[in-house]
Amino acid sequence: ATFTDVTAAAFGSLPVISWADWGDYDNDEDMDLVIVEGHEGIWDAWYADSTEYWLFSHFRFGEDGVDSYTFETPGEDPTARFRFNAKIFNTMVFLGPNAVNPSPAASFVVLTDSLVGAPTFTPGVDVGLYCWRESAGGPWRVEVSGPAGTFGNFSAIIETVNPVQAPADSSLEEVVVAPASPRVYRNDGGVFTEQTGALGFTPSVNPRGIVWVDFDNDGDLDLHQTNAGTTDDVGEASLMWRNDGAVFTPLSGAAWAPGSPDHFTDGSVWADYDRDGDLDMYLAEGAGPLFFSAAPPSNLFRNDGANGNSLEITLNASGSGATPIGAKATCWVQGLPVHRRVRADSWEGFQGPLSLHFGLGAAASFDSLIVVWPDGERRFIPGGQNPTDTWVVGPASAEGFVGRVAPQPAFGRQTIALDVPAPGRVRVTVHDVTGRRVAVLADGRTARPGPWTLSWDGRDESGRRVPTGVYFLRGTGDVEFSRKAVRLR
Question: pTM for the full model?
């Protein structure tokens, strides 16, 4: 495979991104992109608890690239020791005037007067965690250094027998917070247009994860946004952005976005684990803003509140053995299409399930379902069915189908959806109850294989609005059908 970077051509410049997700939120068969911006600052914390003193520096170094900590141990405590969060960081830890690296097997270093004197390093240039004693029996100093604006991740614990005294000095840089909202880029045939403001999104303090999900089974993809909070804030609750068509409406609170606002929440994954038709959420939660408090468990939240019906399918390989990854399925519901694709990724980049979920809203069943595998093989499944379990869909011979005319009744434009399994001539005309032709929607042109949508504005061949009444759309040629259309004037 050959990959070409087209970021600049598609989007121009993008901010630092924490997470992104693909989804067809406007149901036009083009995959749209949503991103959340990464944190522009640094997360620093110190935390004293009895005989332990914790320090932490994570993500971006600040404006000068240096974070400093000063602490004291009570008297000559021979058992005071410096413990690292992971042995893999030992090569980046430097102790005392000789900048000694701890042994690769060591998980801690006893703090003694042999470490009096600062190592030689250039703060904000050299990368590492430096620890030394400023004078015999005096306070200890820790500096975390790295070029300004770069990424780093260091943490350590100082342990003593006696209670640790409060830091004598702490020149931690302030957390730099740049509130950001989800950014949505609508895909119109490969051309991306940002829709963030038009869709009504507002900023959060520290958004962390984002995922498209039809949580309410209405057929529209909503957005679940997880927030991380900061070390300075109590936390920030996650948000559910409900897709209401023209705008996304934020829904907050435990009923809509469960999980603790005090936790560092990485993201969420969704599946109908209990097979009740509602997508349930597994929320990945880490430690809270005080990073050294006990990390809460991740949580599974069962969705008992979706109002609509749903259909879920799992795809097998096509008849030629083509993978279902990349397959497209269109579920027609009350004459309108709902598009989904099997994606090659899930949260944190792992392969997601080969299943697709369709919200049916108030409809008791679907009109029809079409699956197209990446090799072009197609499968048509007629509607009128509402399975209570997941369907497993494999290859079969393709057939054409015709949806309903919608909306019914109508003052304005009505549409009808067709699926043509092979190239053929399609003629669609409109007739009144006497059989008289009043309009021509398709004049026998050759139709390409795939879905087609035709519309009628309620006017006859002379451009006049037709009277209130019942009319019939008739297909002849390679796709034959008759569908009723009710008009109001």
Answer: 0.62
